[in-house]
Amino acid sequence: MHELIGPAWLIWLETSALAIAMRQWRWLYPIIEIVHIVGFVTLVGAAFMFDLRLLGLSRHVPVIDLERHHLRWARLSLLLVIPSGLMMFIAHATEMAANPAFRLKLILIAAAGLNALVFHKGIFKSVKTWNQEIETPWAAKLAGILSLIFWTGVISCGRLLAYL
Fold this sequence. Notes:
Elements: H1 8-14, H2 17-24, H3 28-54, H4 63-91, H5 93-98, H6 100-121, H7 138-160
Helix pairs in contact: 2-4, 3-4, 3-7, 6-7
């Protein structure tokens, strides 16, 4: 184990029973990591399919139907992603908190969430006027492009955690 340097709350997290179990039980960390990846694949896959529709692909598919189906799965996947992510974080809390890829990942997740919130509180309210076979408004396309960029960044940062 590396030297514990950082705020007391991070050291407390990293020395908790769950964090120790995450590091010491041979299969716990890999199992939790697999759960995290499955949840993330579901989340980002659903978001990507919706974003591509916003960019004008598959115009015959109603945006409202796609939102109901795909984004419901994206939201449900958070039940896998958040707890598993927290468990992996506490196993190496001080190290992760200092990792620039981890910090950027959190910023990008916040940006993706804010983008989704702005989209749903804004342009999505008028979706009935551009639901199917009609050019998607530029604001919806912008939200789709930003979502693709943010989620690709999140995935990239997740992969870079081990290398930085």
